[in-house]
Write a structure and sequence with these properties.
202 residues, alpha/beta, Rossmann fold, 2 domains, 5-stranded mixed β-sheet, two-stranded antiparallel sheet, 16% strand
Length: 202
């Protein structure tokens, strides 16, 4: 009788707040355990990366899994969703190459994909490319929106120390305890530059 496949689960959330709440982590782990049962694998452990971004592979949990893969101690890695591992096509291809070299399958629950087959590896690579495109497109839209707001003179980020927000909530307002002129008004800086008058001269 063949022994069950030695499997590791991997869960990740991007923010510390999500990690503290544990909701997303618990949901991911539940899906991984269910998949392991369906696949008939031996789930050795579920490794957690809380508050870690998918932008880099330099994550404590993921690095531990890669060490296990390299050492030949596991035969499959299960994730709830592909982007829990990485959103970079370059990193994804590197992971696929390592997994294939070590004969380790990567199973994604949400996408119903298994890199144990050529078709599975192809589809995962395509989905990784789409995930990276989506992340870059969101970044471009955000930069364009901020650039437009700056061009319109609207507030971007926090209010500068010493100023209050304008009534419309969009533009920098007046200086606290100052002339009442809005930030950016040249008369405000001129008034601040004037020395205080003396009541008498020696």
């Amino acid at each position: 009788m063949m022994s069950p496949v030695r499997t590791i689960g991997y869960v990740r959330v991007s923010t510390d707040r999500q990690a503290e709440q544990g909701v997303s982590l618990e949901a991911q782990e539940a899906k991984i355990r269910a998949m392991a049962t369906v696949q008939g694998t031996e789930l050795l452990e579920v490794v957690v990366d809380g508050g870690e971004s998918a932008m880099s592979l330099n994550r404590p949990g993921l690095q531990r899994i890669l060490e296990l893969v390299t050492a030949g101690k596991i035969e499959a890695v299960i994730v709830a969703k592909l982007d829990r591992l990485t959103r970079s096509v370059k990193d994804l291809c590197g992971l696929l190459e390592l997994f294939e070299k070590r004969k380790v399958a990567r199973i994604s629950v949400a996408e119903s994909l298994d890199t144990g087959s050529a078709a599975g590896r192809l589809v995962i690579t395509i989905m990784g490319a789409v995930s990276q495109w989506e992340r870059e497109a969101i970044g471009e839209r955000t930069r364009d929106a901020l650039r437009h707001k700056r061009a319109q003179g609207q507030r971007v980020g926090n209010i500068e120390f010493g100023f209050r927000l304008s009534a419309d909530g969009l533009h920098p307002g007046t200086r606290l305890g100052g002339t009442g002129r809005a930030r950016g008004d040249p008369r405000a800086s001129e008034s601040r530059a004037q020395p205080a008058p003396y009541s008498s001269y020696p």
